[in-house]
Amino acid sequence: MKYATIQNNDIPESLSDFLNYLETIKSKSINTINGYKIDLTVFFKFMMIHKKKVNSRKVEFEDIDISNIDDDFIRDIKLKDMYAYLSFAEKLRKNGSYGRARKVASLKSFFKFLFTKAKVITENPTLELETPKLDKRLPVYLTLNQSIHLLESLNKEDKNYARDYCILTFFLNCGMRLSELCSIRTDKIKEDTLTIIGKGNKERTIYLNDACLNAFNNYMTVRDDSQANEENKKFLFLSARNTPINKRTVEIMVKKHITNAGLTDAHYTVHKLRHTASTLMYKYGNVDVRSLQQILGHSNISSTMIYTHVDEDQLRESVKNNPLNKI
After folding, report:
1. Which of 3, 37, 139, 273 could bridge across to 171 with cysteines, CB 3.0–4.6 Å?
2. Which positions are catalytic?
């Protein structure tokens, strides 16, 4: 199976059925399926301790066997057990509100499947399960000057300069996700359009501006795929091993360039570059929220609304424009 982070014989049959359902019926992405699997595996391991099926003093948490969990065990799980699990996630696993909210979403999806599709349970204990209150967080992003500085700071003598410059340019101009960038295929770039498969296996078109096209053309002139096999040649960004570049490699590369540029006053990550592109488009590009939603591939506009925050410059200018300012 595609979601083989944990072997199927190491998880309960009901969980395996749920993951198959997500893949074959709901067409969820590999990353989404693995996310559900990890969350629910941790949940079941905690339940084994909570229901006193194992002694946590004798067995390491990661070594707890959940493969024998059956339908009777699942039917015995109540709402109070789930709140105990969320308390465990917060206090012992140090999960913040966003991490616990994701775990609640996993539980709700799983038990809804058991109730409505698999008919394993006659009551759904997650119906009254509340999602932790999320703190409103403004996106962390690079300013326009910082973005320019980052691109200009790359060492042109580095053998991967053209590739890395192209990657950063795509991130900063298009606001694409890390998984989307790693999966770009050369045959999906036609003139100024790039077709990608985004979150939820949804296809969307990204329009490449002059900066992206220049970076792409410069990279293609020096890109050496002579040692790559025919399948790997189809991917735009290749690693030193002549395989499609993976997410971890890109994360390390971005962190290196951000550090070299001296931009260490905030925790900038690959995802923060997506925030940067979104914020700069909204601030300088006169992009309306609906258009920005389509560019970013958000299914819900509420996810896009965080980029409409008023920045410090606008706040400062608003105060200066107060008619009482000149009195």
Report:
1. 273
2. 177, 199, 271, 274, 298, 307
